[in-house]
């Protein structure tokens, strides 16, 4: 159970001191997940690049960097955060379908491991940026392997017809062009088939296609060093710690013994179980035949239920005895899509009670907003059995208007 990482006494202390809503992270759960990747993949010894988009809080990033992880970034802002958190530039890779020229230059100046390009035009922009800096840019191409990962359609990225990557044919043209350029150095190939992928089979299929392509390229004189299989390993929508062992078998089955350095870009499977959203009951009410619990967290804090239909488990802090009823847990935002969970069985919580929305460490805070002029939540890190610290203060009403100009 994930909730064992979040002792009620600490949650109550956090709510009293930092207020609610608050994201609460467990240092030990985060480290456990980072290490579970290392254990599962020990035979392959890949480079793990934590996908910052899942949760870019500096305290978590610093932990990943200390564990020897690299970073996968998708914007200049994430690159800035990654460098600031202590990730080594030579372990950072830069992905994304629309990197600007400024971002490409920033990446090259920072000395990253490589850039995952997603179009011929981007490769030309990268070449131009490298020529300007009089260097040769380490290039990897994001290839769309045309594999269906069977996940939510908004987070399916490895099917042809989507905006991501290029086909194998186009990739071959890019590599042949890059091989003849003074300012491009082809070093790797990548795919990322989607997110919240719950089966290893699509990885085995995509990795097989990528492996065969890398062999074909070598026959044409382009020798790559890195095979990057992206991120996307899923989290069961329940209170569990995801295990990457099946993923390791699928990837190892293709790339083990090839001499290629494998790269993985996990985000969710590392960050989701380490975080929970702590919220307080404001009101209870009935509407038609439904029971509602109105809490102080809303869709601006956790948008996943509204956008992806995600089902985050909800637990009463400290538990509560008594007959259970079915509740919809909703926030104060003026939209019917503003719910954190629907049809949850709970003993009736008292007004002011604390609830914990679990498995929310990934794409929770990082997708939060100030919608309805709600300051973003505080973030706290549990560092030991009875210790915690604030790792981002709650925004204030002043923060809401701080950047506006008259
Ligand atoms: N690498 C690339 C190139 C990606 O686009 C992503 C996620 C990852 C790695 C990390 O994938 P992960 O291991 O976290 O699944 N907001 C959505 C998820 C979007 C994922 C986007 N790309 C959600 O809340 O479910």
Description:
The protein is of the alpha/beta class. The protein has 2 domains: 2-9 and 14-21 and 273-394, Lyase, Ornithine Decarboxylase, Chain A, domain 1; 95-266, TIM Barrel, CATH 3.20.20.10. The protein contains 12 helices and 17 strands. It has helices at 8-18, 27-40, 58-66, 76-85, 101-110, 120-132, 168-179, 201-219, 245-255, 268-271, 304-308, 397-401; strands at residues 22-26, 47-51, 70-73, 92-94, 114-117, 137-142, 184-190, 226-228, 261-264, 275-287, 290-295, 314-316, 324-330, 339-347, 354-357, 378-384, 387-392. Strands 1, 10, 11, 12, 13, 14, 15, 16 and 17 form a 9-stranded mixed sheet that branches. An 8-stranded parallel beta barrel has the order 2-3-4-5-6-7-8-9, surrounded by 6 helices. Helix 5 crosses helix 6 (120-132). The protein starts with 7 loop residues before the first helix and ends in a 5-residue tail after the last helix. The relative contact order is 0.16. The mean pLDDT is 95. Ligand LLP binds at residues 51, 53-54, 72, 95, 155, 192, 195-196, 230-233, 265-269, 304, 308, 362-363, 367.
